[in-house]
# Entry
Amino acid sequence: MLCDDCKKKPASISFKEVLPDETIELNLCDECAAKRGLLSPKKLSPLETLQKVLRQRTAQDERVICPRCCMSLAEFKRVGRFGCSDCPATFADHIQYLIKQIHHSDRHIGRRTAPGTKRGLEIYRLREELKNALEKELYEDAARIRDKLRDYGIKDV
# Structure
C-alpha cells in the first residue's frame, strides 16, 4: 500500500482519527508522518546519551590524566566509571556537556528518595500510636493522632 500523501513510498504507519461527523484514515510513510507531526523524534535516555558520548574519543583524551589514580579520559570513556573521587574534578572541563545532557543542569544533584517512602513509614507509626492510645483509653491523644492521619489523606481511621 502506498503513502496517501506522497503516493511514492510504501506506507508504514496507519493513522486513524475519529471525529464527531466522520472518521479519517490515513496510511503514511515515515517521512510524511513526520511532516504532519505524527512522529516525535526519539529522546535518548540518560544511559543512551552517556554511551553515545563515551564512544566519541579524541587524541587529547589520552593526554588528560587524573593525578591521583592515573586514569586517562580515554579510559574513563571506555569503562564508563571514574577511578577515584578526584576524577570528576580532573575531567570536569571535558565532561561538563555530558552532565548537562544527562541531568539538564550544570551539576550532578544525585538521586532523590523514592516517593512515598517516608510518608508510608510515618502513617504506619501514627497508626501504631493510635492503636496504643485507644488501648490505654487516651482519647484526646487518639483524636490528635487521628487528625494527623487525616492530614495524610487517611480517612478510614
